[in-house]
Amino acid sequence: MPMKYTVSQWDGKKVIIGESGMPDTQPANLLIGFHGAESTPENILVKCNQLKLSNTLFVFPEGPVDADNDRWSWWLDGPKQKESVNAFIEHFANVIESAGQHMRDKYNAPDFTVSLWGFSQGAAAALVYALMGKHPIAKIASVCGFLPELPDGLAKNSPTSILGIFGANDEVVPSFLAEHALDELKANNHKVTVNETSQGHEITEENLKQIREFLTIR
């Protein structure tokens, strides 16, 4: 069945929901894809289409910070970054709860896993939520991810399984920043698989293959 997309609004922001019919098997899967900074949900949607995961509801939220020209980011850069990251964590908790309500209402799926993946600042958003979000996350795939300046005093999320892919030739997120982020997750008891490649700041076909395998292995 081909993927069908609908647009909704959760916690005051646009989300794109991708559905191809949910088989009556449990647990169902919820996969949330984060676009990069100053971008749109459609950009990560195109890549996510290639994952071809079964029994999965796809959700592509729009970042809450206006970057002009109908483009969006997940938080502000600069001196207010801590506060902006904190606001993102609260906003995204509401997005997950809205997604869960959608799963229950449309698919009668009270039992489902939540996984995240993203690129660049979107990968950073997934890693931040793994560290400090209030909802348990089953798996996270990060491509060219990093960590922003983190808020103080937030509760730590439960450990999850993380695939961290980054490139030695990334001109936007240097490899040492990506590696530092994954080390921080390891230090907080997350199970991290690190894959340093020769790629630049991009999502490659090989990345998508690895992410598909990572997200489908239980």
Q: What's the order of the H and E elements?
A: EEEHEEEHEHEEHEH
The CATH architecture term is 3-Layer(aba) Sandwich
Number of helices: 5
What is the topology, as strand order, of the major beta sheet? 1-2-4-3-7-8-9-10
Strand coverage percent: 25-35%
CATH fold name: Rossmann fold
Outline of the structure:
By secondary structure, this protein is an alpha/beta fold. It has a single domain (4-216), classed as Alpha/Beta hydrolase fold, catalytic domain (Rossmann fold, 3-Layer(aba) Sandwich), CATH 3.40.50.
Question: Which characteristics define this entry?
Answer:
single chain; 218 residues; alpha/beta; Rossmann fold; 8-stranded mixed sheet; two-stranded antiparallel sheet; 5 helices; 10 strands
Topology, element by element:
Elements: E1 4-10, E2 13-19, E3 28-34, H1 41-48, E4 56-61, E5 65-66, E6 72-73, H2 81-107, E7 112-119, H3 121-132, E8 139-143, E9 161-167, H4 175-187, E10 191-197, H5 205-216
Parallel strand pairs: 3-4, 3-7, 7-8, 8-9, 9-10
Antiparallel strand pairs: 1-2, 2-4, 5-6
Helix pairs in contact: 2-3
